[in-house]
From TrEMBL, chains A, B:
Classification via PANTHER family: GNTR FAMILY REGULATORY PROTEIN, TRANSCRIPTIONAL REGULATOR, GNTR FAMILY
Keywords: DNA-binding, Transcription, Transcription regulation
The keyword DNA-binding is assigned to this record: yes
Name of the protein in its database record: GntR family transcriptional regulator
SMART domains: FCD, HTH_GNTR
InterPro entries given in the database record: GntR_C, TF_FadR/GntR_C, Tscrpt_reg_HTH_GntR, WH-like_DNA-bd_sf, WH_DNA-bd_sf
KW Repeat (keyword) present: no
Domain HTH gntR-type intervals: 25-92
Pfam families membership: FCD (PF07729), GntR (PF00392)
Length: 252, 252
DNA sequence: GGCTAGGGGTTGTTGAACAATCCGACAAGA
DNA sequence: TCTTGTCGGATTGTTCAACAACCCCTAGCC
């Protein structure tokens, strides 16, 4: 997430890929990660207010550090900041989901278009994600299927070989996770899309660029529709997660 | 930039659109704007180190507020933050420019694809930007031509009608401005691309979707090549701007 | 020459304080 | 009853000062 490397891969190019892991993180970044996990896992319901004082005490960090963490989360669109009112866990509207899928289509299309010229590692990533999804399906672990599904699409966009596209995409998918709180993670929801992921992958390997594109467009269109209708059905005011968050108060 | 409105336009729907204007801005945001302008106009050369102490004194804001502003600039990728080392004005490598154009192609392609279904205001924006560029050309104001050119492409991507695509795109173009410091703003540079903007617009109006796409691809490919070669020619260590920045020290 | 230890300077983090702002509640008036 | 004005509590915005942690550079050592 830091991003500003100007690369000079020395003789240890293989190690260079691991750079990001030892990138030392300040307290603020770690706080942001904790909050991000809580949000994307639905433990902090959308609309929840994140009080500086309460959270600062709960996490044992100063207000200033917490505010720094908030800025990172605002950057990822997981929370919104309103002047003199504080920060709130983002509420995704159906219109947001619509918008997200528009951008998603653009990014993934860029990926499949570049597929014939893509680096072998990138294609491998696609296969790996698909395999993970299938394995999770075998175990009946549907939340893992969901994760693998996101990773699959992340790597499809990754075929473009562009750092910025990767970035955009992961940001987008994190945001999309916010909507998953509204749609129950069920068998029937993921199963058909897993099949279509396999179809997509197959088309990708066979190099039928145009076919992949039309299938991808249909795929995303259907997925969008499923999520939007699920959101509309669940309706506002009914975030299904059991709300154990005592640290924070609701939005008005 | 705040973004989290969930609309309930009452009887004053017309006014609701103006909401964003009274969105008050904190000191940090204004500081960030000042710095952004200085950077994009080349008054702060890439690689310049932005010392918290020096800048805080120069702008008469506290270190904490300044750090808040830095976060916003990091978000826009205009500066990079290195832990325990500080923030530096971003140095764009040719690889970065390459990457930027990959994403740019994806976004603008999304725009032209949606052109047939685009809202009339969006199409109007394209025409306006083009007209502005032509007017600036008539005046011989080549920096204005450059600005209008960016706005033109921004509105092309805008045809997709997606808030997030607009966002991505403006972010991208701000970043691209960083590279413009390395390429002299000259007649010969902009003039051919202005012509091709006109061609693009013409194709857009006539609805020849496929033709627009291939022309756009060629266009961006050429533009990328021009900028990259210009950067390579200027080479590292020769940022052409006269460096009046006494507030800050160079990077090592 | 190459390596280690130390020092100067910068950033990271904290805590406290005050000002600005928002929100809800209460009261006064039509 | 409904609207409007005003007040007070609570939260955020901003600043300041201090210390710890860290990086880079240099001096000295082998």
């Amino acid at each position: 997430m830091v991003g500003g490397e100007q690369g000079s891969t020395g003789a240890f190019g293989a190690l260079a890929a691991e750079r990001g892991r030892l990138e030392r993180t300040g307290v603020a970044q770690r706080v942001a990660e904790v909050l991000r996990d809580h949000i994307t896992e639905g433990r902090l319901a959308p609309g929840t207010r994140l009080s500086e004082e309460a959270l600062g005490e709960a996490l044992a960090v100063s207000r200033n550090t917490l505010r720094e963490a908030f800025r990172l989360l605002v950057d990822q669109r997981l929370v919104v900041h309103e002047l003199n009112r504080g920060v709130f866990v983002r509420i995704l509207t159906p219109e947001d989901v619509d918008d997200i899928f528009t951008l998603r289509l653009a990014l993934e299309t860029a990926g499949v278009r570049a597929a014939p010229r893509a680096a072998p590692e990138r294609l491998a990533q696609v296969r790996i994600a698909l395999a993970q999804a299938e394995a999770a399906e075998g175990r009946g672990d549907w939340v893992a299927v969901g994760t693998a599904d996101l990773r699959f699409h992340q790597s499809v966009a990754g075929l473009a070989g562009s750092m910025r596209i990767d970035d955009c995409m992961s940001r987008l998918l994190a945001e999309l996770r916010l909507a998953f709180g509204a749609v129950p993670t069920a068998h029937g929801l993921h199963e058909p899309f897993l099949r279509r992921n396999q179809i997509l992958a197959g088309l990708l390997e066979s190099g039928e660029s145009d076919d992949v594109e039309v299938e991808l467009t249909r795929y995303l269109d259907d997925a969008r529709r499923v999520i939007v209708t699920a959101m509309r059905a669940a309706g506002p005011g009914a975030p299904p997660g059991p709300g154990p968050a005592a640290v924070t108060s609701e939005r008005r």
